[in-house]
Amino acid sequence: MSDVFIQGIVVFILAAFVGFEVIAKVPRTLHTPLMSGANAISGITIVGAIIAAAVGTGWVAAVLGFFAVALAMINVVGGFLVTNRMLEMFKKVPSKR
Amino acid sequence: MVELAYLTAGVLFIVGLKGLTSPKTATRGIRIAAVGMLVAMIVVTFDLLGLDAKFAWGVVIAGVVVGGAIGAVLAIRVQMTDMPQLVAAFNGFGGGASALVAAATVVGANAVLLTETAVVTSLSLAIGTVTLTGSFVAFGKLQGIISGRQVFIPGGAVTNGVIAAGIVAASAVGVFADSSMAYWVALGLAAVLGVTTVLVVGGADMPVVISLLNSFSGIAAAMAGFIIGNQALIVGGALVGAAGMILTIEMATAMNRSIPSILFAQFGGGASAEDIGTKPVNRATADDAAIALAYAERVIIVPGYGLAVAQAQHAVKDLANALEERGIEVTYAIHPVAGRMPGHMNVLLAEADISYDLLLDLEQANPKFAQTDVVLVIGANDVVNPSAKTDPTSPIYGMPILNVDEAKTTIVVKRSLSPGFAGIDNPLFYEDTTLMFFGDAKQALEDALAAINQL
Asked: B225 and B295 share a domain?
């Protein structure tokens, strides 16, 4: 196995542990925004999609690349916007009478 | 330098998620995560521009514009009641994008892939595709396009096991014999597996399925990260995988069920059909409900999926305002699996400007019911079903429930006596202290409010 690959495994395991620690502290009230925020972050596959679309040659690669970029971009833009929209609702705490 | 920039993006995701640990810092957190995404996208663009090669930028730009526009429209126009569907669709898109990156790797490979690259390619392909098709079945069920009830496939778990074994076998051939045809067979089988697995899951188990697919979309992204050797994808994917897994476990715990039993086991149907609807109940009118509520001191509102279906969140708020003006203490008890996704009720109540301090968890709410005058159950059923505590033969026996039957009076707002998604009769409805207020949740709450204002 290449060094880059092993390094990747290390990063993956560490990130998973950090993720478990941090996300376990997210309160239940924010679990829906957490999920849509996770949708947005899973859109990071846009980086792989952009590379695949850019380097691809031939129409099959172009179709695959286009759909990869478009689907990932739906998640990035849609995920962040809708999460932000939801969290704005949680921000406004109505004044107690 | 480029490596460092990608790692920075990954760190920004972690910092952003840390912000989500409190409603006060959450908005800032998600924006920090968005900056991380922007960093990653800028870095990949300049990295490619720096290479002396001809790239298909037209394809990239077209994808970004089309995908961005669709995403923006979906995010701005979605109703909060439809969030489970949107998240299900996003899970599918994320998984699909990662599967496509893997597919492009198979198509674009002009030499034999390194074994490790081939392995992660097959994983990204299979997991991404299962996520894609599984999510669209979940979307269809939530949207009501596909029946929300369980559909039984011939052979059940055995069939799914055979398909899964087929995916592993085809992937192995793809990896070790360098056969692109084998990859496409694996992809096809994965597409089938996503459908057959989610099809058998009943509507009440949707929170678990959505969470699990959320996790899968992250794992697929991380595998895509291994394909291209990119740390931003690996970190981002691992985080999403972890988030989805935590939610999956929490949802399954809240229903006292194991994840395999949700995905593979038969569930529901405790009460015989003739049992339901023949026993006497206390029917309440809007006036009865109004009198009970208006002369209470403490009221706890228990929202369920029926509230979301009826879009009744604002009607709840109006009713609560009227009660608070009379000096009545109003809080809300939220079961972890109320609704069709984790935290869904909280978002709906937040949309109606109900402060999150007033929302009680299961553990916070249960000690309070005994000192509560009126519990108003709106469109919830299984999460307040006492047979989870009393009837060992019930399919939901052992599931932690909200003990609303301990309150002096319970008012249940419900369309009819028909059982919930689980198909289980609810003894709560026949209790002496329970008033059944039949009707659409929104209409019922508006009628009750009008009646309170006339008192």
From this structure: no
